[in-house]
Specification:
The protein is of the alpha+beta class. α6 crosses α8 and α10 (571-582) runs parallel beside α11. It starts with a strand and ends with a helix.
Length: 735
């Protein structure tokens, strides 16, 4: 399946240098004050340079062009997409490029500086305009657009905004990136898609690419991409406006910061602060913050279990008898399951399976009487269930007959192969379809007193899809936010005040509507690219990007039987992943796509350990409520990279540890067989939760090795922190 952006014939497929020279007329050089900002165009020894500085921050430069190099350019490009089940791959062919910029005129209004001129290259030229204004959030807004060239070959397709950066500057954010926290030196595409299976880890990536149509992915594949960054220089930028959701690339692999937006206009908003917290506060104030989770989510674990009423009841009995603190069970096969080459999948027809759960309402009520809530599962697709037993309402057929499905280029329902069955997404741009699906979720998924559900997918809208309103190229990255909004409306329609829906996909605007995120579908493995360490990396970058309340599948998800090597969950991996999850906002387990291959928390050999972990999690409940409230109020994530808490410390470069809230420094074990971890401590004295031993130096940051036997992850807190001392005492009592 392919789709392409409109373009003239493309000649170059390797990404060229899109930045050229800049010349400025004498009369445009000068300084203009815009409220709290200063916009200055000066003629340096290397050529013209434009800077935007903050008067409130001592004249600190928030954005600058490179001396002598253009900060706006245009091009014709053909972007071609291939996809299978959300695994989107792109190829860009480059045609005419207009990299050279002439700044001819300057106009100053009350709150804006308007620069106009022409772009040149390849024998043609095109007019452009750049407006620096104080309209809207942030210090300054940059609006840029480019007109049609004079070569008679039609409009451009691509606009480039290029800025300078310091050689030592570190870049963070871009959504959920399963990569090092600092992405300087990398090229980051902003496109939501499947994260991939393996993502470079071998042999699984090669096998997935060979036998699963390129599903192996790469380091830059993610369910949650956002056109946003903050830097170690305490400045930031995010795209906004009508073209913010189209495919763009933030290129940090060359000089400066090159934003390539495949549209003829863009809007960028600049951020500045004295601390990372100020940057995140201002960003989330503009884009939307997540609401606080209900208190019950922090008082016990959410246990993933399936297989029918009797099995669910038996596992709950076993865990509660062991002293586990269970807030809810997550029953994803409430709607029935099917088996495919990938493993156990679900029916995707949102009604209770009468064979597995003949007493569904009684089951939910009985568990509720024991203080255990029920969560379920849904997604943005409807599957073909023709011929399956027990179907009472065929939702795919109903949506098809009403014209509520996304259409393919031929005009028919966009049916996508899911490895053994077909499914089509509901068209969320169709107001009638959207209202119908909200009603389905409210009356069928939320039935019988459940407290929420996993709201899966959202990243799979094909680029060649035909929608009721708008174009797929604009809607693709916007789809996760629309899906989150539909679920938010369904919770409201169902009258569930404490409803929790959780998502793996996200785009710009998703946090405003999503109650909770999860970190995607990692392998049940230890590898850096797609195992336990990658889940932590994703949560840290997601946190600074506005996804402030996020968790992961404890134990991972993707389980494989493949040649050369199997990927099955071990007891050690499950325990270490659970330890990490204790220090978060939602401790939820997942059986995986092949549950029979994996060690489970309810296995006889695991129950006692898991019960201790749930008691530790519950001991954090008062602290957790304060952390969640802070996230909702200020945009500071619950799980924080050290840079957010101690930005000036050498420890701010440590990627394998995090702060849960302001006080608890956690260094999870991310390597098989390890019984101690290296912890990078900011200056000060730190107390070990388990032993009470002191670590650190009052005057400088140090790196120390801390014991971390199974069941006692390395957790430290600032000496004298009374709330952390209370938590430490409860932890010791729990084990």
């Amino acid at each position: 399946m392919r789709s392409a952006a409109r373009s003239s014939a493309a000649r170059v497929t390797r990404a060229p240098d899109l930045v050229g020279s800049v010349r400025a007329a004498r009369e445009v050089v000068g300084t203009v004050e815009l409220g709290a900002a200063v916009v200055r165009l000066v003629d340096t020894g290397e050529g013209p340079q434009l800077t935007v500085a903050s008067r409130a921050h001592g004249g600190r430069v928030v954005w600058a062009s490179e001396p002598g190099r253009s900060f706006v350019a245009g091009a014709r490009a053909q972007v071609t997409w291939t996809h299978r089940k959300g695994a989107f791959r792109t190829r860009t062919g480059w045609g005419e490029i207009l990299p050279n910029q002439v700044i001819a005129h300057r106009e100053v209004t009350g709150d804006a500086v308007i620069l106009t001129g022409t772009l040149h290259g390849g024998g043609g030229s095109a007019p452009y305009r750049v407006v620096f204004s104080t309209a809207g959030p942030g210090l300054v807004t940059i609006d840029a657009d480019v007109g049609e060239p004079d070569d008679g070959r039609g409009p451009l397709t691509t606009l480039v905004l290029h800025g300078d950066r310091a050689s030592y500057e570190r870049f963070h954010g871009f959504g959920e990136q399963y990569a090092p926290f600092d992405l300087a030196g990398r090229r980051v595409p902003i496109v939501v898609r499947e994260q991939g299976v393996g993502r470079g880890a071998q042999p699984v990536t090669a096998l997935a690419n060979r036998f699963a149509d390129g599903a192996g992915g790469a380091w830059d594949w993610t369910y949650a991409a956002m056109p946003f960054y903050v830097t170690s220089e305490l400045r930031g930028l995010f795209l906004d406006g009508p073209t913010a959701d189209v495919y763009s690339v933030f290129d940090l692999s060359r000089r400066g910061v090159t934003i390539v937006c495949h549209a003829t206009s863009l809007r960028a908003r600049l951020l500045v602060g004295d601390t990372p917290a100020e940057l995140l506060r201002d960003h989330t104030a503009a884009t939307g913050r997540m609401r606080a989770l209900p208190a019950w989510t922090g008082e016990g674990a959410v246990v993933g279990v399936q297989g029918g009423s009797a099995r669910v009841r038996g596992i709950v009995d076993r865990l509660l008898d062991a002293g586990a603190q269970i807030a809810a069970v997550w029953i994803q096969d409430w709607c029935g399951h099917r088996f495919t080459s990938f493993g156990q999948r679900l029916r995707w027809n949102w009604e209770v399976d009468p064979d597995l759960y003949p007493d569904w309402e009684r089951l939910v009520a009985d568990l509720g009487e024991r203080g255990v809530r029920v969560l379920t599962y849904t997604n943005s697709f409807l599957a073909d269930v023709a011929g399956l037993p027990g179907v009472r309402r065929d939702l795919l057929a109903e949506a098809r007959d009403r014209g509520y499905l996304v259409r393919d280029p031929t005009g028919g329902p966009y049916l996508i192969d899911q490895d053994g069955f077909l499914a089509a997404p509901v068209d969320l741009t169709n107001s009638e379809a959207r209202a119908w699906y909200v009603d389905v979720l409210a009356k069928q998924v939320a039935a019988a007193g459940v407290s929420g559900w996993m709201a899966d997918f959202g990243e799979t809208l094909p680029y060649d899809a035909v929608l009721a309103e708008g174009e797929a190229a604009t809607w693709h990255n916007r789809w996760p936010a629309a899906w989150a909004e539909v679920n938010e409306e369904a919770c409201r329609a169902a009258g569930i005040p404490d409803c929790v829906t959780f998502f793996r996909s996200a785009g710009r605007g998703s946090p405003r509507h999503a109650r909770l995120f999860w970190a995607g579908d990692q392998l049940v493995d230890w590898n850096e690219q797609d195992g336990l360490p990658s889940a932590l990396a994703g949560m840290l970058s997601a946190g600074v990007s506005g996804m402030t309340l996020i968790h992961g599948d404890a134990g991972g998800y993707t389980t494989l039987d493949i040649p050369l090597r199997n990927y099955h969950r071990s007891s050690e991996l499950l325990r270490r992943w659970t330890e990490l999850s204790v220090f978060g906002v939602f401790l939820r387990t997942h059986e995986g796509n092949r549950p029979w291959r994996n060690v489970q928390v309810y296995d006889l050999g695991e129950v006692e350990f898991f019960a201790r972990m749930t008691r530790m999690y519950a001991a954090l409940a008062p602290y957790r409520r304060a952390v969640v409230a802070e996230a909702a109020h200020t945009g500071m994530p619950a799980i924080r990279h050290t840079w957010l808490v101690h930005p000036d410390s050498p420890a701010a470069r440590a990627d394998r540890q995090f702060f849960f809230g302001p006080s608890l420094l956690v260094a999870p074990v991310l390597k098989r067989g390890a019984r101690s971890v290296r912890v990078h401590l900011p200056a000060g004295r730190w107390t070990h939760v388990w032993s009470g031993r002191g670590y650190g130096d009052p005057y400088r940051a140090v790196s120390v090795r801390v014991p971390a036997p199974l069941g006692q992850p390395a957790v430290l807190y600032p000496e004298g922190d009374t709330e952390a001392e209370r938590i430490a005492a409860e932890f010791r009592a729990a084990v």
